[in-house]
Design brief:
The chain is an alpha/beta fold. The protein has one domain (7-226): TIM Barrel, CATH 3.20.20.70. The protein contains 12 helices and 8 strands. The chain has helices spanning 26-38, 58-72, 87-100, 117-129, 142-145, 151-157, 173-181, 194-200, 214-225, 229-246, 253-263, 281-301, and strands spanning 10-12, 43-46, 77-81, 104-107, 135-140, 163-168, 185-188, 204-207. It has an 8-stranded parallel sheet with strand order 1-8-7-6-5-4-3-2. α1 crosses α2, α8 runs parallel beside α9 and α9 (214-225) runs antiparallel to α10. The longest helix is centred in the last third of the chain and has 21 residues, at 281-301. The protein is globular and about 50 Å long.
Length: 302
């Protein structure tokens, strides 16, 4: 049986890093990786939704992952999301990720066309075959992908010995229970329910807002695992209020988070890439409010 302890913990979903012209920036990616390493997280999830992967080319995604691995490979557990909306490009990214020594690759199902489960399984297995020495994690995010992982499909995928589990971003913790029952490791996806996900049996969490407030998510996991549920639930409620504030501006949430990082004294990693809506002047005041909310919560709980 595989030792999956390296997947137990808090994994910020790595943000897309751009320079002032909007081009992918390896130096800024390295800076963000160093910043998150210093925060004490267990690992990074690179190239997923927070990484704006669907708006990047294969070469751009390679550049980001190479920068991350150069900086923190061997120091943090790195999971590389490699799915593209065609099998060949996904296999290229999978093979590239394995060549860099990532701990695992992950993939959403194919989007747009509604495919039968056997076709989705073939897609995932083809990707996995391109990285035969690397763990594989299914990324279940039905609200965006348009297709949900079912227990039957998971059972089929678990016949592949490289498939170790699921990053579950559906909004039902019942799904976590279902997938654990099938024998999969599950990592919680929705940041708004990290406490509930951990209490249900998730080994840890992967989240898009973790980078803005890693100390709060580390504390939420600590409290939950210690059985201090009143404090954990209170912290979760404050995290949810911060997330609501991060989504309250005129820009995309990731553009807001990047401004929050700058105002916190963290790395400047640019703006969100079009067609995601970029930062506007009024959004800076919203970001300042978020920075204050995060600082107050850290003082209260950490």
């Amino acid at each position: 049986m595989k030792d999956l302890s390296k997947y137990r913990g808090i994994f910020p979903a790595f943000y897309a890093c751009y320079d002032r012209t909007g081009a992918v920036s390896a130096p800024r990616a390295r800076e963000l990786a160093r910043y998150l390493l210093a925060k004490g997280v267990k690992g990074l999830y690179v190239g997923g939704s927070s990484g704006e992967c669907i708006y990047q080319s294969v070469d751009e995604r390679k550049t980001i992952l190479e920068a991350v691995m150069d900086e923190v490979g061997g120091k943090l557990t790195v999971i590389a999301h490699v799915a593209c909306n065609n099998t060949a490009d996904s296999q290229t990214l999978a093979a590239h990720a394995q060549s860099l020594g990532v701990d695992a690759i992950a993939a959403i199902p194919p989007i747009y066309f509604k495919l039968p489960e056997n076709a989705i399984a073939q897609y995932w297995n083809d990707i996995s075959a391109a990285a035969p020495d690397t763990d594989f994690i299914i990324y279940n995010i039905p609200q965006l992908a348009g297709v949900a992982l079912t227990p039957a499909l998971l059972r089929q995928m678990l016949q592949n010995p490289r498939v170790i589990g699921v990053k579950n971003s559906s909004m039902s913790t019942y799904d976590i229970s279902l997938f654990i029952k099938e024998g999969a490791m599950v990592m919680n996806g929705p940041d708004e329910q990290i406490v509930a996900g951990l209490a249900t049996g998730a080994t840890g969490g992967i989240g898009g807002t973790y980078g803005a407030m890693p100390a709060l998510f580390l504390k939420a996991m600590e409290l939950t695992l210690a059985g201090q549920m009143d404090a954990a639930c209170a912290l979760q409620a404050d995290i949810c209020r911060i997330i609501e504030a991060l989504c309250s501006g005129g820009c995309n949430m990731y553009a807001m988070i990047k401004e929050v990082l700058r105002q916190q004294g963290g790395p400047d990693i640019g703006d969100a890439r079009a067609p995601l809506t970029g930062l506007t002047d009024p959004d800076r005041a919203v970001a300042a409010k978020c920075v204050d909310m995060i600082a107050r919560a850290e003082t209260k709980y950490c």
